[in-house]
């Protein structure tokens, strides 16, 4: 590896977050390198969403530092909309605009944030809708689509910004079981193409398959971290073992 690929894209240092006297995150430390696919697993309430929300600056940590390309995302004059274009997020609940068509949903960010022309925005939207298999639905409204289709549109919308990193917070948890596969398939192909991703998921087979690194969170701390083989085949921490035993 050369020096460029060794520099972390995102660096989380000693992140702690309290809500009142609830210590939700405690001393979280990890880095994400280009082409990493980091899967974050752990029980409900362990702080996974809060961590992603801190990375996306939807929450501010009580203490600690997050840098993107060596710049603090909390620094004064930080360009938040540029950051949100470079570090996109896909939510459990899709968060599409229901009054807009599929195409309009996928053009909004590139028009408003990246200031693309209508034509450029349309080209990007169609490129990424095609990638997720949703090009035939450009004129549909979200309510006319299944959950799996809506989530694929949400992924296309994020991809249209051509981000460096995509964050996913349980992207398949709100889906009927028969729709989980189509969304995971899209994410698998993005991983294969080398998109850097941080994915909170309960899909253990998927995590084992696609991730370069797995982080197990337990009660606000990183209880164990390693390669998928280390975490899924030889977990060292009894808490990891106990958590994973629920999925067998
Ligand atoms: P996970 O995503 O792993 O299920 P969360 O990050 O959503 O965990 O939540 C971790 C803890 O933080 C929970 O105890 C939750 O109740 C608490 N929490 C999350 N968001 C807030 C908030 N905005 N205000 C107060 N408590 C919160
Ligand atoms: Mg969550």
TrEMBL record:
In terms of InterPro entries, this protein maps to:
AAA+_ATPase (IPR003593), ABC_ATPase_HisP-typ (IPR030679), ABC_transporter-like_ATP-bd (IPR003439), ABC_transporter-like_CS (IPR017871), MetN_ABC_transporter-like (IPR050086), P-loop_NTPase (IPR027417)
Domain of life, per UniProt, equals Bacteria
Topology within the bilayer? Peripheral membrane protein
Asked whether the keyword S-adenosyl-L-methionine is assigned, the reply is no
Cellular localization per UniProt: Cell membrane
GO terms for CC?
Answer: plasma membrane
The ABC transporter domain extends over 10-244
| GO molecular function ontology, one term from the record | ATP binding
* Transmembrane stretches, start-end: none
Indicate the principal place this protein occupies in or around the cell.
membrane
Record's keyword terms, sorted: Amino-acid transport, ATP-binding, Cell membrane, Membrane, Nucleotide-binding, Transport
Asked whether the UniProt record includes Cytoplasm among its keywords, one would answer: no
Q: Which family does it belong to?
A: Belongs to the ABC transporter superfamily.
What is the protein's given name? Amino acid ABC transporter ATP-binding protein
